[in-house]
Design brief:
Elements (H helix, E strand, L loop, with lengths): L1 E6 L3 H12 L4 E5 L12 E2 L1 H9 L3 H7 L1 E3 L23 E3 L2 H14 L3 E4 L5 E4 L4 E4 L5 E9 L6 H6 L5 E2 L5 E8 L3 H11 L7 E6 L2 E7 L13 H12 L5 E10 L3 E3 L4 E2 L2 E3 L5 E2 L7 H21 L9 H24 L3 H13 L3 H12 L22 E2 L2 E2 L9 E5 L12 E5 L9 E4 L5 E4 L3 H12 L10
Parallel strand pairs: 1-2, 1-9, 2-6, 9-17, 21-22
Antiparallel strand pairs: 3-5, 4-5, 7-8, 8-9, 10-15, 11-13, 11-14, 12-13, 15-18, 16-17, 19-20, 21-23, 23-24
Helix pairs in contact: 1-4, 1-8, 8-9
Length: 479
């Protein structure tokens, strides 16, 4: 029997596969497409996702393939400078095409021993008290202890589970594609700048050799978004908004997406969980979709591994939904608000000007940037110190960086007092070190970098170790 089957080989599924393999969990990833997609949907990683890659020792690979940009202009395209002193060691956005993100995450999962099987579509699923049976189109059945659906907004796993996906249908479709254009680059950039003064959902981004990434609102909402648009639709809409079609031709790929907003009624049913777009979809304003999925996987991975490996405390796996579903709810509100501000109608434009003025206040600008970049996320882990529930930024220790101690996917105790984690040494990295940036006696972080304890009392620490990392065996005393 396989430990975990992941349905969907996109960034969420691949990130989850790596997290599970770090903890020795057997993983099979089933991806229905026979080849990795060649089109680019997401264009970058926000601060929290950059931190995630740093925590797992992957950031250098991503930095080598991407470009760093200032953190600003992401809320409804309102161009404001980044707030000063953002609480992170990575105050930038990493521009990197999703095709490269997918490749790097696939390479990492393979290095760790995940089994990625392409061309494997899931058509059936049933579960019992011992495991889950997955059916493929040829009648093959695979058996696993757990299944996670990371198979996108049209998730087959979610539908087979019968989990509702309520929300708002799409009200506006956007055409997206890559194609060549005969117009001179200077002409394209001049016209695009003029159109974007009022229509932020419009753009032609040069990719080199006369090829552009084209984004333009569609004329109508498609009844079947799985049917790709044709080049004439792009030409028609480009002329409608810009007065020219720029001589576009020879498309590499064409697609469409909508602004539907939906949230799964629950994230888990028995032994089957949902993550990424299978659990939530929203308009792309602010570029949060891929990032939200990666962060879902980062939250779920160590918890599911704890369950598989037998040390997960009661209720730990339930915290995946209680922590991540409220985050998705908040994220879904964000692009809704941005969508209103992107309207060209007089009323929304007045509100947009007002919001722009408010963003000149440092606290307002910081609040919105922290929401979009996800560094303000705080889980409910109990009352007490202001750091509880928050992720901790990378801090300098005397012997290196904190995030360097998190590459193996274990919890971390940074101890400046002389405590003990005997009995949990297989789950916790005990760092006896000092940091001028950390004004606490000791701090306990989960494998996903969120703080669950601050203090200096051993008995209190032991209680939190049991709560988050399970009990130790009788033969392995605490002290």
């Amino acid at each position: 029997m396989i430990d975990v089957i992941i349905v969907g080989g996109g960034p969420t599924g691949l990130m989850l596969a790596s997290e599970l393999r770090l903890n020795g969990v057997q993983v099979v990833v089933l991806e229905k497409e026979s080849e990795a997609p060649k089109w680019v949907r997401s264009l970058g990683l926000h601060v929290r996702s950059i931190e995630v890659m740093d925590q797992r020792g992957l950031l250098e690979r991503f930095l080598a393939q991407g470009k760093q940009y200032p953190v600003g202009g992401f809320f409804a395209g309102i161009d404001k400078p980044a707030p000063r002193g953002l609480d992170t060691a990575h105050p930038y956005v990493l521009g990197i095409p999703q095709t490269i993100t997918d490749r790097l995450l696939a390479e990492r999962a393979a290095e760790l021993g995940a089994d990625l099987r392409r061309g494997c579509e899931v058509v059936g699923l049933r579960q019992d008290g011992e495991g889950v049976t997955v059916e493929l189109p040829d009648g093959t059945h695979l058996r696993s202890r757990y299944v996670v659906g990371c198979d996108g907004g049209r998730s087959t796993v979610r539908k087979l589970l019968g989990v509702g996906f309520p929300g708002e249908p799409s009200r506006c479709d956007i055409l997206l594609g890559e194609m060549e254009a005969d117009a001179a680059l200077k002409t394209v950039m001049t016209v695009v700048a003029e159109v974007r003064e009022t229509e932020k959902r419009f753009g032609l981004g040069p990719l080199g050799d006369g090829v552009y990434r084209v984004v333009v609102p569609a004329a109508r909402v498609s009844e079947d978004r799985s049917v790709a648009p044709v080049l004439d639709e792009f030409k028609q809409q480009l002329r409608a908004f810009a007065g020219t079609d720029f001589g576009v031709h020879s498309p590499r790929w064409l697609s469409r997406f909508g602004d539907a907003t939906r949230l799964a009624e629950r994230y888990r049913s028995g032994r089957v969980s949902l993550a990424g777009d299978a659990a939530h979809i929203h308009p792309p304003m602010g570029g949060q979709g891929l990032n939200l999925g990666i962060q879902d996987a980062f939250n779920l991975g160590w918890k599911l591994a704890a369950e598989v490996n037998g040390w997960g405390p009661p209720g730990l796996l339930d915290t995946y939904e209680t922590e991540r579903r409220p985050v998705a709810t908040d994220v879904l509100e964000n692009p809704r608000a941005q969508g209103v501000l992107l309207s060209t109608d007089p009323g929304p434009q007045s509100v947009r000007r007002l919001v722009s003025e408010l963003m000149d206040f440092e606290d307002v600008n910081r609040f919105l940037i922290e929401k979009i970049t996800a560094i303000s996320v705080r889980y409910s882990v109990g009352e007490g110190h202001e750091l509880l529930g928050r992720r901790l930024r990378d801090v300098r220790l005397q012997r290196g960086r904190l995030y360097e101690q998190m590459h193996g996917g274990r919890g971390v105790l940074v101890d400046q007092t002389g405590l003990s984690v005997a009995g949990w040494a297989d789950r916790i990295n005990h760092i006896v070190d000092h940091s001028d940036e950390l004004d606490v006696p000791a701090i306990l972080l989960r494998p996903d970098g969120h703080v669950v304890w601050v203090g200096d009392e051993q008995q209190d620490l032991d209680h939190q170790l049991v709560r988050w990392f399970g009990r130790i065996s009788v033969s392995d005393p605490i002290h």
